[in-house]
Amino acid sequence: MVSRYDAVELSAAVEAGAGCYGRSGCLSGDIGVGNRAGSQEKIRGSAPYIGIAGYSLAGLFALYAMYRCDCFAWVASMSGSLWFPKFREYVLRHELMRQPEMLYMSLGDAEAKTKHAVLKTVQENTEAIVRHYQEVGVDVRWELNPGNHFRDVAMRSAKGIKAILEA
User: Fold this and answer.
1) What angle do CA 165, 166, 167 make, to 5 degrees?
2) What are the pLDDT digits (tens) for 48-64?
3) What is the pTM of this model?
4) How far apart are CA 92 and CA 94, in angstroms?
5) Are 160 and 78 contacting, i.e. CB atoms less than 8 angstroms apart?
6) Dihedral of alpha carbons 103, 91, 38, 1, sign
7) Which residue has the higher pLDDT, 128 or 11?
8) 3-state secondary structure string, 91-116?
């Protein structure tokens, strides 16, 4: 999993545009994410749509996946770790492989209220990324929820998944 690696290593990988992180595999290779046809072969029948959703670091990964494959038509990032060093710059400099039909993003209104210099950038970065996606024509639903990163995690995750399911 991406979360097993420290911020310095991941930051260098994001800056380099890498899609592989150690033993986690490659977005464009062995985990099957980058190969939509290969992934669909594993599904009996046909999927009406394919989406991705994540909370915290998985929320950052959901956004990053849009730059590494064209698999996901619906994307949700709840309380995404968008404080991650250089991720905002990455988003602004790179093109999506596929513009999602709908993107849901949310954050807690107290998440940026910290003394930690890097973590306190989360709301500023998230709002800048939301504006960027809107400017390039992505249908973005943005919500600022009450509380910090750890408040109502299950409910906030469910809201994001519901939003993309109903889109």
Assistant:
1) 95
2) 789 999 999 999 999 99
3) 0.78
4) 6
5) yes
6) negative
7) 128
8) HHHCCCCCCCCEEEEEEECCCCCCCC
H helix and E strand count, the chain: 6, 4
Q: Per DSSP, which regions of the chain are E strands?
A: 51-55, 74-78, 102-108, 140-145
- Token representation of residue 28: 């464009």
10-56 pLDDT, tens digit per residue, is 445 555 544 433 333 334 443 344 555 666 677 677 777 899 999 99
Query: 95-134: buried (b, 16+ CB within 10 Å) or exposed (e) per residue?
Result: ebeeebebbbbbbbeebbeeeeeeeebbbebbbebbeebe
Asked if 102 contacts 160 with a C-beta cutoff of 8 angstroms, the reply is: no
How many CB atoms sit inside 10 A of residue 43's CB?
9
Which residue has 């996946």 as its token pair? 65
Q: How far does Cα 77 stand from its chain's mean position?
A: 5
For 38, residues 6+ apart whose C-beta sits below 8 A from its C-beta are: 32
